[in-house]
């Protein structure tokens, strides 16, 4: 196995337990801008990680001005941050990787400024070499392009990278980039569903990453 010199993490469902925050913010924002919706929470949670375009298409929610929705959503998000917390072993895992001189990055479909604010809120800034949120002109996961961008910025080969996330988007992105992939079973997808995408590894706790790289 090629030595792993870089671990790229997804955000929601991987580092941050944020389903309640995302759901409440979405409902609040749709109500605020007067858009009719029917979003059962349990079904909605199974789609977290996908782009809102795809989520709204699935639920047949018509959002005429998507950019306006995102603008209001981002303003509302931190009103519900108390409903989010970190998964077990986040600090310990990131600290251990840092001590081994392994590069650490974040890849999320959240907007760049929002991703940075969330990482700062949980005081994780010092662990990350690069935070990659949604940026204009760069496709989002499952495209490998944002992961290629990260690797290029960090001067790391994709083959030396482990992509860690809780959804099919993370696994597909990592595989398409030629990276190793690691699915986490404590996020927003069922273990059996993750297995169908054939990740290289499946873990039930972030702390297991250190065992993979030892």
Describe this structure in words.
- The protein has two domains: 6-17 and 85-212, Rossmann fold (3-Layer(aba) Sandwich), CATH 3.40.50; 19-83.
- The chain has a six-stranded parallel sheet with strand order 5-4-1-6-7-8, sandwiched between helices.
- 37% of the residues are buried.
- The radius of gyration is 17 Å and the shape is globular.
- The protein has ten helices and eight strands.
- Helix 8 links the parallel strand 6 (161-165) and strand 7 (180-184).
- The protein has 214 residues and is an alpha/beta fold.
- It starts with 5 loop residues before the first strand and ends with a helix.
The CATH homologous superfamily name of the largest domain equals HAD superfamily/HAD-like
Tertiary shape: globular
Give the second-level CATH assignment, the architecture of the largest domain: 3-Layer(aba) Sandwich
| Total number of beta strands | 8
Q: State the CATH class of the largest domain.
A: Alpha Beta
Task: Please list the strands of the largest sheet in the order they lie side by side.
Answer: 5-4-1-6-7-8
The helix content, as a percent range, equals: 40-55%
Query: SS-based structural class?
Result: alpha/beta
| Mean pLDDT level | 95
Kindly provide the radius of gyration, computed on alpha-carbon positions and rounded to a whole number of angstroms.
17 Å
Give the biggest beta sheet: 6 strands, parallel
Total number of domains: 2
Order of helices and strands: EEHHHHEHEHEHEHEHEH
Low-confidence stretches: none
Indicate the proportion of strand residues.
15-25%
The CATH topology of the largest domain comes to: Rossmann fold
Number of helices: 10
Span between N and C termini?
Answer: 12 Å
